[in-house]
Amino acid sequence: MLEGKAMVEDTDMPAKMQAQAMSAASRALDRFDVLDYRSIAAHIKKEFDTIHGPGWQCVVGSSFGCYFTHSKGSFIYFRLESLRFLVFKGTAA
């Protein structure tokens, strides 16, 4: 398991779901090369789709901008090691 500690930047997720997101990110970083952002994001998205139902989105990288609408209680933005992670469940505006 990766040794670094995740730091939450912003969230409206329940604490248990936050822990699941950070654990999923840690497992993905153990499994994939740190520069394979797409595989890392896909791993986290698929895990959340399985646990919490379909419709989850995940963005991973060292620098990115975004603008999105999310379902209440389904958003987290955190950092782990040198990467930033954005996980949310989309919704129609």
From TrEMBL:
GO terms for biological process: microtubule-based process. This is Dynein light chain. GO terms for cellular component: cytoplasmic dynein complex; microtubule. Gene3D superfamilies: Protein Inhibitor Of Neuronal Nitric Oxide Synthase (3.30.740.10). Belongs to the dynein light chain family. It comes from Dichanthelium oligosanthes. It is found in: Cytoplasm, Cytoskeleton. InterPro entries: DLC_sf, Dynein_light_chain_typ-1/2. Keywords: Cytoplasm, Cytoskeleton, Dynein, Microtubule, Motor protein. One of its GO terms (molecular function) is dynein intermediate chain binding.
